[in-house]
Amino acid sequence: MNLIGILDLFTLLFTILVFSIILIRWKHQFSLHSKVFLIFSLSAILFYYLSNFLEWSGISDILIDIEDYIAILVPLLWFFFLYSFFQMLSGQELKASEKKFRVIAVQSSMGIIIIQNRKFKYLNPAISKIIGYSIEELLNWNEMDIASVIPKEDLIFMMELFKKGKEGEINFTPNSSFRTINKKGEVKWLENLVSIISYENKPANLVCVIDITDKKRAEELIVEENKRLLELSKMREDIITRVSHELKTPITAMYGATQMLLNQFREEMNTEILEFTEISHRGALRLKKLVDNLVDATKLQTGKLELNLQNEDIVNSIKECIEEMSYLVNNRNLTLTFEPSNDIFLLIDKYRIQQVITNILSNAIKNTPKGGKINIVVFDKNKHIDILIKDTGVGLTVKEQELLFEKFGKIERYGMDLGVDIEGSGLGLYISKEIVDLHGGQILVESEGRHKGATFTIRLQKN
After folding, report:
1. Residue 184 near residue 132, CB atoms below 8 Å
2. Geometric angle at alpha carbon 303, from 300 and 304, rounded to 5°
3. Segment (H or E) for 301
4. How far is residue 227 CA from its own chain's centroid?
5. Do 151 and 139 form a contact (C-beta atoms < 8 A)?
6. Would the pTM count as exceeding 0.85?
7. Cα dist. 44→7, 74, 369 in Å?
8. CB atoms within 10 A of CB 191
9. Cβ(390)–Cβ(334) under 8 Å?
């Protein structure tokens, strides 16, 4: 036997081995037409190599004539044989992949559906649990059955979604939600993710579904609660606005009357009447400021506070504020110093900026114990000016600084025995910050802590 005969023998044995593997996989891996073709191909190949082997071994030459004809077909037969064989191997990989998919799908808490020709082809147990129908029931559903459990508004959207997928307009859709009605008649909210896949060699839609009913109910509760809170907030603002305007007229009258008595008839009053008149005047002034602050806070919140911008000398405006507050400084036996610079003109609403300076200066006076010091300095920078109001008062903790500019963010100091004035509504600094913000500026605060004083900086941009 020569080398060619040996090669034919090995080829024959290899073909028999492959044929044995095919027989093992015969039942599950091949379609009917593949089986017929493989039998024909393998029989011809086996016959060819067997006759070759018999010829080279010298046993027989009976089959030589037939072999010559088959030899012409052998390359083609080998090609189709190997093609079928590799199809078998790829089929095995596909089966393994499908098995993994089914294991994952069965264990998943997410509903998984494969839809083909508008019918369910595969459903995992989770989808049955979500909508309450058994898998057997769902697999027998037609298009009308599916439509019957989806509300009309959501059905139009879903049909459009699947239509686009079918026509190839989309290969993937972002998360979208829709409602469905389960077997008990309960409305369920579902979130789905749709993509196009190949199922049994045909296009299909893979739909992954999550039950988001609890999430939707929570969202609805939040929306309802927010709506209720907005209504309450509006009601509160309306009440504050109405009460403020109703109180403003009589309080202004009281304040004006007591001020006139003190200015024109002070000398004619005895000590007791003068004392009561001063008490009434201080009370009227406090109420007037509170009402004014409430009105301003409402205007700021509704965006109705308008600025009357004029070119004003900021240094002169500060001097006027100091003069207005001098009686409070003297009452508390404080030392107030002002280090003015040259005249600085800015485009500001003078009344509102003086309101800011007065609010911060008033806070410094209230929070500085008797005998303390307050210093006001103006720094003229390149693009802005800084007005610093520094006191030697009780100072601010980190937590207090966080509350400082909040609406009604009054810092409570009852019972702390700090020797300071604890009166106030908690609106002054909130209004001041909003006014400075409207001017395009900032209010900054620094304090090293309790009993270490505080420095407020009003920063205003130049024209």
Report:
1. yes
2. 85
3. helix 271-302
4. 20
5. no
6. no
7. 18, 8, 114
8. 16
9. no
| Interval 343-375: pLDDT, tens | 889 999 998 999 999 999 988 998 888 889 999
Query: Which residues, at least 6 apart from 152, have a Cβ–Cβ distance to it below 8 Å?
Result: none
Q: Sign of the C-alpha dihedral, residues 67, 68, 71, 77?
A: negative
pLDDT of amino acid 64: 46
Tell me the domains of the chain and their CATH numbers.
Answer: 3-104 (no CATH), 109-211 (3.30.450.20), 217-302 (1.10.287.130), 310-461 (3.30.565.10)
Residue closest to 64 by CA, chosen among 72, 54, 73, 74:
54
| Per-residue pLDDT tens digits for 417-429 | 444 555 556 788 8
Determine the 3-state secondary structure of 408 from DSSP.
coil
Joined tokens for residue 448? 């090293």
- Highest averaged pLDDT of the listed ranges 7-16, 19-28, 312-321: 312-321
pLDDT exceeds 80 at position 408: no
Higher-pLDDT residue of 102 and 285 is 285
- The amino acid present at 132, given as its one-letter code, is G
| pLDDT for the residue numbered 107 | 78
> What is d(CA 348, CA 435) in angstroms, rounded to the nearest whole number?
10
Any bridge partners for residue 115, and if so which? 120, 205
How far apart are alpha carbons 406 and 428 in whole angstroms? 10
- Provide the pLDDT for residue 268: 86
**Relative orientation angle of helices 314-331 and 350-366, to the nearest 10 degrees:** 30
CA distance 238 to 242: 6
For 237, the enclosing helix (H) or strand (E) is helix 213-265
In this prediction, residues 93-102 reach a mean pLDDT of 63
Q: Which of 403, 370, 397 is nearest to 451 (CA)?
A: 397
Predicted confidence at residue 254, as pLDDT, reads 84
The set of residues, in sequence order, having a beta carbon less than 8 Å from that of 121 and lying 6+ positions away, is 114, 115, 139, 199, 200, 204
Listed in sequence order, the DSSP H helices in 58-121 are: 64-107
Strands 454-461 and 335-339: unpaired
What CA–CA distance (Å, rounded) separates 356 from 443?
Answer: 10
For residues 376 and 43, the model is more confident at 376
Give the residue, 199 or 84, on which the prediction is more confident.
199
On whether the CB atoms of residues 200 and 119 are closer than 8 A, the answer is no
Tokens of 394: 């009780």
pLDDT above 70 (res 263): yes
